[in-house]
Amino acid sequence: MEKVIRIGTRDSQLALWQAHQVNDLLTAQGYRTELVPIKSEGDIDLVTPLYEIGVQGIFTKSLDLALLNNRIDIAVHSFKDVPTQLPQQIVHAAILKRGPVKDLLVYKTNTDFLEQPGYIAHIATSSVRRKAQWLRRYPQHQLHNLRGNVNTRLQKLAAENWDGAIFAAAGLERINVRPATSIYLDWMLPAPAQGAVVAVCREDDQFCLDACAAFNDADTALATQIEREFLRTLMGGCTTPISAYAYIQDHTVHFSGELCSLDGSQFFSTSHEVSLDQAQQLGQRAAEEIMAQGGAEIVAQIRNAK
């Protein structure tokens, strides 16, 4: 009997969209597939702020366990949710061509409040990185916790007396729910691997490794490797205000990385342009540069605050 590749996914609309991308790429090659929706801890507890419940791996742990227990053959994740250290016996099978990487602001009525000195706007996001970057630019604003899938967060924004909320553009645009009342935050550097989708499988599953190899995007794989290396070298985890973005153009790797204090008052950044043959350990080198500038103190403060 021909093997059916069981694709594990969270059951949110966005997660299912991602899983269907992998499903379509596999079926186009002639493989038989089956989607297996699985609830994650991050989808069950929608109240507690992510930084209080140990966010690292919270959206991937349930799928990883299903993979290790042989309930599924492939797990599909938003790459930015994946810890920099994978569980033993699990490996990257393919990183899909990257989508939109920017963050955007969804506002209630208009964006006049962004230009009003002294106005205390109320902005919602569950991301420590977004909070820190926003407070660095608008230190007088009030930040509010916002949890749930994309649709739930949009509904919450509509119901609350907030001025706006911050989302990843990829999340809203992929499922066609981006409101007209939204703008790109061109000044906000994204999370490492934001906008990328990864498929993982068991390291001994050569069948799935071969099946996924055909749609691994080399440029996205290299860019996200550099970004995640930067994150891992600094301290590694979604509960830290670390931003990174790399892209390849004309055989050159362009990289920018940032580290903020939790309140945005302290800030270190770095940028590099190197040839492809010099890209090895670029993320690590950039992180060590940040640490030498004084970033080590911020990292220590964040660790002590946990």
TrEMBL record:
UniProt xrefs under Gene3D superfamilies: Periplasmic binding protein-like II, Porphobilinogen deaminase, C-terminal domain
Domain Porphobilinogen deaminase C-terminal: 223-291
GO cellular component entries: cytoplasm
GO BP annotations, alphabetical order: heme biosynthetic process
Pfam family, one: Porphobil_deam
GO molecular function list: hydroxymethylbilane synthase activity
Enzyme class: transferase
Domain Porphobilinogen deaminase N-terminal: 5-207
Pathway noted in the entry: Porphyrin-containing compound metabolism; protoporphyrin-IX biosynthesis; coproporphyrinogen-III from 5-aminolevulinate: step 2/4
CDD domains associated with the record: PBP2_PBGD_2
Cofactor(s) listed: dipyrromethane
Entry annotated with the keyword Transferase: yes
Keywords from the UniProt entry: Porphyrin biosynthesis, Transferase
EC number of the protein: 2.5.1.61
Signal sequence range: none
The keyword Transferase is annotated on this UniProt entry: yes
Reactions catalysed according to its record: 4 porphobilinogen + H2O = hydroxymethylbilane + 4 NH4(+)
Subunit structure: Monomer.
NCBIfam families reported for this sequence: hemC
Family, as annotated: Belongs to the HMBS family.
PANTHER family per record: PORPHOBILINOGEN DEAMINASE (PTHR11557)
Function field: Tetrapolymerization of the monopyrrole PBG into the hydroxymethylbilane pre-uroporphyrinogen in several discrete steps.
Protein name: Hydroxymethylbilane synthase
Organism: Chitinophaga eiseniae
